[in-house]
Write a structure and sequence with these properties.
9 strands, 2 domains, two-stranded antiparallel sheet, Aminoglycoside 3'-phosphotransferase, Chain: A, domain 2, 45% helix, Phosphorylase Kinase, domain 1, alpha+beta, 313 residues
């Protein structure tokens, strides 16, 4: 990292977090949503500095980091966020070039390539997500739900310049069909979703236990089961479209042992997941998982694959 940027970040940390001295900045890859730096302070106290792009809404992002900190306080393995000095109710400071600066304790562990995850690893992940969803459901944070159809229609009408490469993967008629379907069924959106579960956002320790869940920037009111769909799509479906059935069953069985879900709710979760993924991609805050264009065109195929897995548990 160049000295000029290090000097700028050091000044911001001193101003907003009262860190008077930083020994070292080191660029690291932590999750998909941010530009991240390990920060070493006197006494070898490690922190992690995140710069969220300007496309993220600062108020929504502050709510997301507050929830991350809340579940961390309850014992869930995710970093603790540091509040800015000027306000104990805010975790977000203005960063360079319109970015949003967040500082938290440095998480331990490393991400694991999808092909290296075993049935036992996915079973453990299922239990962790169920625990996370329970803690989120117990939060006193108000769940301000917005219409998935309305959010998607707005994103289609006002896409971010950062989404140019992703827009080509999303056909207009498939997006419109999804909006109309959501308007017809009026999904019951309750609870909270992490919103950005991905292999890069899950860190494992040396014992292959989940040591941290990152990428909380897209946390919002929604269906918790959307996070489950994320895991199924990204961990349990091969590039050729085949389902890794033993891995999927291990994951679903572990998750459902702590959280029951009706068949109708799974249908809504798949549709709202498609809308959320498309909305964040168009807004320039999210990425599209492999094969998303197929799921957008025919979400019923994804629902059928999940139903088969559930029927074998």
């Amino acid at each position: 990292m160049d000295d000029r940027k290090a000097y700028m970040l050091n000044g911001l940390l001193e101003r907003y977090f009262d860190l008077s001295r930083v020994i070292r900045f080191r660029r690291v890859q932590r999750g998909l949503q941010t530009e991240s730096y390990e920060v070493l302070t006197p006494g070898n106290y490690d922190l992690l500095l995140h710069l969220f792009p300007s496309a993220f809404d600062s108020d929504a992002l502050n709510n997301a980091i507050a929830m991350m900190d809340e579940v961390s306080t309850a014992g869930f393995p995710t970093p603790r966020a540091l509040a800015i000095q000027s306000s104990q109710n805010s975790f977000i400071a203005p960063g360079p070039q319109g970015t949003h600066l967040v500082l938290n304790t440095a998480p331990r562990g490393q991400p694991l390539a999808v092909r290296e995850w075993t049935n036992m690893d996915l079973s453990h992940l299922g239990l962790r997500l169920a625990w996370m969803h329970r803690l989120m459901a117990e939060s006193k944070t108000p769940a301000v739900a917005a219409s998935p159809a309305g959010l998607l229609r707005r994103a289609i009408r006002e896409p971010s310049p950062r989404s140019d490469s992703l827009r080509r993967a999303l056909k207009a008629d498939h997006l419109e069909k999804l909006v109309q379907t959501l308007e017809q069924i009026v999904p019951v959106v309750h609870g909270f979703r992490h919103g950005g579960v991905a292999p890069e956002a899950i860190l494992l320790d040396s014992g292959r236990q989940v040591s941290a869940v990152l990428d909380w920037g897209l946390f919002s009111a929604g269906l918790p089961q959307e996070d489950v769909v994320d895991v199924f799509v990204q961990w349990c479906i091969e590039p050729d479209g085949q389902v890794r059935m033993p891995e999927a069953q291990s994951f679903f069985q572990a998750y459902l042992s702590l959280t029951a879900t009706s068949e109708e709710l799974w249908r809504q979760a798949v549709l709202v997941w498609c809308a959320h993924r498309a909305t964040t991609a168009l807004a320039g805050t999210g990425t599209l998982p492999r094969g998303f264009a197929t799921f957008l065109e025919k979400p019923e195929f994804l629902l059928a694959a999940i139903s088969v897995c559930l029927s074998r548990i």
